[in-house]
Each structure stands twice: as C-alpha cells, then as structure tokens.
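Please review this pair:
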Amino acid sequence: MTAIVAAPVRQPSFGAVRLRSSLRQHEPRFFEAGILLALLAAPTLFAAFVDGRSFQGEDNWIKPLKFEVALSVYLLTLAFYARWLPRGTAQRRWYRIYSASVVAAIAFEMVWICGAAALGTASHFNPSPEGEIFYSFAGIGALLLTSATPVYAWLIARNPTTGLAPALKEALVTGLALTLPLTLLTAGMMSQMGAHGVGGSGVAGGTFPVMGWLRDGGDLRVAHFFATHAMHFIPAFGLASVALWGPAVRLPVRLFALGYIAFVVWVFAEALAGRAFLPGVG
C-alpha cells in the first residue's frame, strides 16, 4: 500500500505584503501613522455622507479627507525612502525622538482640522482668538513635519551605500531638499494673506476637477501642491532619466529640477496675479 504524503501548502508571496513588511522594517512610525491616516479616510467619508453641512461652498469633511490622503502619502513616501538612510539611523536615539515628533505634529494637525470640521468652522485663516492660537501652533507643527524632507535629503546624500544609480540618487536628494523651501514660499504667502484665493470669490464653486482649486481667480494652493510634491515628481523624473540617458548622466536631472523650480514659481506668480491654473479646465 502506497502512503500518500500531503505536500506542504506554500503561502503565496504577494508584492504588496513584501512592500508592507519593508516599509515597516525601515520606518515603522511613519508607516503605521500613514496607514492609520489612510484608514481614517473611511469614517471621514461617512461623516461627509451623513453630515449635510458645508463651509464656504464645500462639504465640511472634504478638507479633513484631503489632509488624511495627503499626509498618508507623505508619511508612506518617507517610509519608502527610509531604506536609503545610513544603516542604523532609525535606531539612533535622536532619530527616534525626531520621527516621533513628526508623527505627533501630524496628529495635532489632523485633530485641529477634524475638530474645525466638526464645529463647522475654518481651521486655516480663522480670525477668532482661538482660531489664531491654533493656527499659530499648527504653523509650527507644519514646519516640523515638513522638515523631515531636508533631513532625509541630508542623510541620504551622505550615505555612500544606497545602491542607487548616481542620477537617481541626485534626483531623490534634490526632490527632498526642494520640498521644504518651495513649501515655505507658498504656504508662507498664504499665511500672510490670510487666504488662498486671489481676485476671485474664494468660494469652492466651479472648481478644478478633483483638486478643488478655484476657477474664478488665482489659487495659491496650486503652487503649494506642486511644492509639496517635489519629493515625488523629481525622483520620478530621475527614474525616467536613468532609463533614457543612463545611470551616471546627471545633467537631465539638474535641468529638470531647475525647470521644476521655475514652474512652481510661475504657477505661484500666476495665482498672485489672480489668474486661474489651466483656465480651460473645469
């Protein structure tokens, strides 16, 4: 009689599972906070569905939802980039304190924005005494959380063992390094003006598809969007540059970075002049 031996069942290995493990391994705080923010989008969508209130022509819960998505992408991107930090960085005491502070700043931002949505009032540019106090603290928190990009740029730049192609490494470092100054330029102007709209109604009617940018005047949030995503667009071009011109050719990356700066400044100037971004769209 022949014995039948059952072969062990091998669990399938999925790319998403490997990616999740890798992100958690290299930067567990940013990864877990990013996933939590992504999960919070579900109850926020539910709140938007059941709460019929709006503020300045926009559903009360759209702004918290946008911030949850944006900050989730931000944290998960940093968790992905953390693989190229110098070995042992994540275990150093200063880094653990710093990364925890970044997560705490993001938590404060979300509590503040969601709280304002629940109260049916403005989080940003709220002229009330309480609103101005919270806005001041939120500004400090925003500076702290965005400071992670130049910190990562510095750490990755000084790591000789990233294994990245020279052009891609330069694109990654440049994109991270530019994110904070470009963001300060755009966010600082909005803070000084006390509004994001220039020359229009400031009401979210007839907006740019998906993004919600104003169409009847300039909107400083457009330049702010591209400023904060320098950490994505420039490294993405770096990948294309390696494929097109080879791993060691850095000139295309440098030219693209200069062009990207010029583009953000142009979009910013157009908004200040009261002109809508891509006026034929939306």
Summary: Confidence is low (pLDDT under 50) at residues 1-10. The first strand starts at residue 54 and ends at 55.
